[in-house]
Amino acid sequence: EMQWKDVTYNLEQHDTSSPNKLYKSWLTHIRKTMPDLESLCIEDSQSYDYQTQVYPIMKKAWLDRLIIDEVRETFNLLSGFIEKRFTEAFGDLEVTIVLYPGLCNGAGWVTPIDENMHILLGIEKIVELKWTSMEKLFDLINHELGHVLMINARKKGEEAYPTEPSKSVFQLFSEGVAEYVSQTLSPNENIRGKAWGSWCQASHDRIAETFLLRLEDKASTQDFFGDWVTLFGKSDLGYYLGQQFLNSLLDKWSLEEVLVLPIETLHDALLIYLKKSL
Q1: Would you say residue 104 has pLDDT above 80?
Q2: pLDDT by residue (tens digit) across 124-178?
Q3: 68 and 11 in contact (C-beta within 8 Å)?
Q4: DSSP label at 121?
């Protein structure tokens, strides 16, 4: 069963006039509405400069009552529809989906809280990325549900591979599963737009070759993932490549089998897939 929770009410009533005042307002709000998020958000945002990278985005979103209300309304409208569509396609899923004000931690984020899986939807990032429409919010939530589906199937909780190349293989696979679920459930074009999708298709071999070289060098592939980094002038190329890789796995295995493939099998299959692009 999916639980849906919106804790973004009354944001416009808080003081946003300075970085310090908005931070205090955020603390007050989060402690009152969802205290479990306080330490998670603070820890996750340590690598950002609050005054220049976080405060301006938070302030703009918090002051835009119309757009906040639109996102909240869409979130509530989508809840029953998404649960029905997902359950019909992939079965029941135990997860709590929370729309919350964060510290620019991410538009979507999956994490366990008290041993229950949570999808955290950061309203200030959703506003910043202009993912506020029914279609884009629909795709974002389905993408995050894909992550939960994979985590549950693997039953390994916070499965992590701190060293390369396993780290990159697992991240590409994870995002591939999430994109596959999102695209399976959605009649819409990719959340990143038609031009992005067309460019990725035309540049597939170049993207694949670059990823392969990084794997062989045991180098980081972080610039393939995230809206704040670019490669070849584009963001999120790992999401595209991940979905193409997942499609290649589904040519050989069922989704149930793919979801639980060991990291070694994924690594070998990825090398084969990428080398076909050379």
Answers
A1: yes
A2: 999 999 999 999 999 999 999 999 999 999 986 667 898 999 999 999 999 999 9
A3: yes
A4: E
Which amino acid makes up residue 267?
A: H
Whether the CB-CB separation of 250 and 258 falls below 8 Å is answered with yes
CA distance 31 to 79: 25
Half-sphere exposure of 255 (CA within 13 A, CB side): 14
Which of 276, 265, 263, 275 minimizes the C-alpha distance to 212?
275
Alpha carbons 165 and 168: distance in angstroms, whole number: 5
Q: What sign for the dihedral angle of Cα 109, 187, 86, 176? A: negative
For tokens 């279609």, what's the residue? 135
216: which 2 tokens? 């062989």
Segment 42-68, tens digit of pLDDT? 999 998 999 999 999 999 999 999 999
What is the rounded CA–CA span in Å between residue 222 and residue 242?
A: 13
Residues 270, 271, 274, 275: is their CA dihedral positive or negative?
A: negative
Range list of H helices, 91-158: 123-128, 134-154
Q: What is the spatial distance between Cα 231 and Cα 222, in angstroms, rounded to a whole number?
A: 10
Which residue bears the tokens 């931070």? Answer: 23
DSSP three-state, residue 82: helix
Both tokens of 85, joined, read 């569509």
Provide the token pair at 19.
């970085």
Confidence at residue 193, expressed as pLDDT on a 0 to 100 scale: 82
Place of tokens 């060991």: 262
